[in-house]
Amino acid sequence: MSTFQAPKGTYDLIPPRSAVFLAVRDTIATQVRNAGYGYVETPGFEDVNLFARGVGESTDIVTKEMYTLTTKGGDQLALRPEGTASVLRAALQANLHKQGNLPVKLWYSGSYYRYERAQAGRYRHFSQVGAEAIGAEDPALDAELIILADQAYRALGLRQYRILLNSLGDKECRPVYREALQTFLRGLDLDEETLRRAEINPLRVLDDKRADVQKQLVDAPLLRDYLCDACKAYHEQVRELITAAGVVFEDDPKLVRGLDYYTRTTFEFVHDGLGSQSAVGGGGRYDGLSEMIGGPALPSVGWALGVDRTVLALEAEGVELDLPAATSVFAVALGEEARRILFGKVTELRRAGIAADFSFGGKGLKGSMKDANRSGARLALVAGERDLAEGVVQLKDMESGEQRAVALDGVLDAVRELLG
Ligand code: HAM
What we know:
It comes from Streptomyces filamentosus (Streptomyces roseosporus). Keywords: Aminoacyl-tRNA synthetase, ATP-binding, Cytoplasm, Ligase, Nucleotide-binding, Protein biosynthesis. This is Histidine--tRNA ligase. This protein is α+β, with helices and mostly antiparallel strands. Helix content is 38%, strand content 21%. It has 2 domains: 17-173 and 227-317, Bira Bifunctional Protein, Domain 2 (BirA Bifunctional Protein, domain 2, 2-Layer Sandwich); 329-419, Anticodon-binding domain (Rossmann fold, 3-Layer(aba) Sandwich), CATH 3.40.50.800. The strands form 3 sheets. The chain has an 8-stranded mixed beta sheet with strand order 1-5-6-11-10-9-7-8, with helices on both faces. A 5-stranded mixed beta sheet has the order 13-12-14-15-16, with helices on both faces. The longest helix has 18 residues, at 139-156. The mean pLDDT is 95. Bound molecules: histidyl-adenosine monophosphate (HAM).
């Protein structure tokens, strides 16, 4: 143990569990790549105002949870709490929206930072894979993204999740609803802070988790009843498209998200085995975000799936991913001459694309075979002085225990044959 520990609310990804994280990222990435999304990578920090304006000045993320810093040059930066504002900023900066057909479809994977109250499933450093379709207002895009996320979770083997779907309206109908909700909230018995929130961001009050608040919200007006005809028709098309794709979802008229940029379609993937931090992913449409950060009108939609919580969900369901063994061949060398020759063989195998490892540290036969077992390798390559004198090495099948002598220059071919 060192004097230092990972900071509060963070943890290290270490083998063998880290392999599951990689597989989760990879599975999600496979789905979006397969649907024409291109990879984008942006810096881990941005101008703090990008998030203040984009995510929303009154959101918890901006007011309480951002890691901000002032550089020696006086720039105000924030570690990114989410990816959407950054990705849109990058797309605008590179003029991607002017270079061809819209939508511009991008995906990303990385670390995000929120100074949250740390608990199981809620961390201060976490990992997301996200996808954004920028610059088109088309219900098929909203549907595509929901279907792709569903496909990613299914491909991983998850079953106990639900998709919650809502529409948050647009700049025509939301203000009317906002007013109606505010009038309703002003009549309730709420503490001062909640009343203040009702004035700044009334929709957020709907998301209050406290039972005494929820009890009073039973008769709150619902945005669903205030949607304008265009929003209603749009939402109906999204619902029809995902239904036709066989994706099961629940209408959740009270679903509001923790970021202010959403318009129309919003959705969340919740897992029933995770307790209070149940959202494994979420997203929606953000038709006004580009203008909020100084760009042209670019209606867009996207999601981000939380890698940490997806791994927790896999563990909660007892799903074991079919992970390929890291090593196919493990070389056990007995004596100096064997070390020299087998180290060469390991290099040869690796150059031929075969995953191979070596018994480092000058161990004896027993210790080295233990290492070979632990590595999960299908084959062990064993050689001592007597083998080398005969110009052979022993190739052992770790499962059946069968062993045969192979000529030194025939190792690569024999390994290839046995591994199929
Ligand atoms: P979000 O709902 O804030 O949305 O985060 C997406 C997912 O990231 C959550 O569902 C959760 O799985 C994971 N997550 C968020 N915070 C934490 C945390 N503190 N610890 C562990 N996991 C966490 C966004 O970030 C939007 N940018 C999504 C989006 C993309 N909307 C449109 N495009």
